[in-house]
Backbone:
């Protein structure tokens, strides 16, 4: 019996989708450097983990992902599992335009949250589930036990159970042409007993998440910029620790505004100079004599071009997408990418 005969039997017994290998699509963050190094954002239909210390832009980047998912999929919904009980609707509205299509759930226990995720994951019009966060998914056994009782391993068992429940649901969704995507947010903890040459930090929740994740991104906070006594913006860096969809072990940096400042709004990323630099490298911004040219628009100098892109946000975003598309067709560099000088 040849393979083709065996395949026919398997298709009759199971489904032809077992043999369908489709191209991976991405959900962009809208942050130029992040989307460049991930070749488009987080993979749809897969599991992604964002982790890092507090205030390192994990949740904020997740909100950007939700916003772009809802824009790309106007008939679909997204779910935000608020285990931390810190969801702020006003702050979220700075990043998500379609708040009416975001389902926010605040479970009391980890098991309750997993059961809700199981039900919602089966909904035909839900395509993205964000968990904030793995570290705060408290098992019932820990919450209901006496403080003196030892409850070793309950949290890791809960997280493992979540994967065993959700992954088959994601698989069935793929067979019905629905790329159910799971984005996990997590925090680090010290890994006691490691030797000097081994990492001292690990993710909370056990090792299974390391195996199941397609994209693993660690976030850091580098520094804050102030104006007088007010904190204006923050410099975030990130490292792609693991990627099954593009090159791993790359780092990037971006600057985000924390308040409305001059022409910048809360949550806006200061990336104009970086985009212009890469526009030159991809020849989407070219010099013609003493002029600078974008498509059919001509400018006397780079300052005039910068002013134009600052005012015309739609044109700026279109230019970002054109540059990224051009960069994706070339090899990704492995050196650090940082914001240009102001």
Residues:
């Amino acid at each position: 019996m040849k393979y083709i005969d065996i395949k026919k039997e398997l298709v009759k017994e199971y489904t032809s989708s077992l043999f369908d290998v489709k191209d991976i699509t991405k959900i962009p963050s809208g942050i130029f450097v992040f989307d460049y190094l991930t070749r488009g954002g987080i993979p749809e239909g897969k599991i992604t983990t964002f982790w890092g210390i507090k205030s390192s832009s994990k949740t904020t980047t997740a909100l950007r992902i939700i916003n772009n998912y809802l824009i790309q999929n106007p008939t679909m919904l997204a779910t935000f599992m608020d285990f931390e009980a810190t969801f702020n609707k006003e702050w979220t509205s700075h990043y998500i335009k379609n708040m009416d299509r975001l389902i926010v759930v605040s479970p009391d226990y980890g098991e309750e949250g997993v059961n809700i995720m199981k039900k919602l994951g089966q909904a035909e019009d839900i395509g993205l589930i964000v968990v904030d966060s793995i570290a705060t998914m408290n098992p019932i056994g820990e919450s209901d036990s006496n403080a003196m009782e030892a409850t070793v391993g309950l949290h890791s068992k809960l997280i493992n159970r979540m994967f065993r429940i959700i992954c088959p649901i994601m698989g069935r969704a793929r067979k019905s042409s629905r790329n159910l995507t799971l984005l996990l947010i997590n925090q680090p903890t010290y890994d006691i007993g490691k030797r000097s040459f081994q990492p001292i930090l690990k993710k909370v929740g056990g090792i299974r998440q390391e195996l199941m994740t397609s994209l693993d991104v660690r976030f850091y906070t580098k520094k804050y910029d102030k104006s007088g006594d007010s904190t204006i913006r923050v410099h975030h860096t990130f490292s792609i620790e693991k990627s099954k969809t593009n090159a791993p072990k790359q780092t990037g940096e971006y600057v985000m505004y924390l308040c409305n400042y001059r022409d910048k709004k809360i949550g806006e990323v200061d990336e104009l100079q970086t985009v212009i630099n890469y526009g030159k490298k991809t020849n989407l911004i070219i010099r013609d004599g003493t002029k600078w040219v974008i498509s059919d628009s001509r400018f006397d100098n780079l300052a005039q071009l910068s002013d134009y892109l600052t005012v015309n946000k739609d044109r700026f975003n279109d230019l970002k997408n054109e540059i990224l598309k051009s960069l994706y067709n070339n090899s990704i560099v492995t050196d650090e990418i940082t914001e240009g000088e102001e």
Summary: The chain has a mean pLDDT of 90.
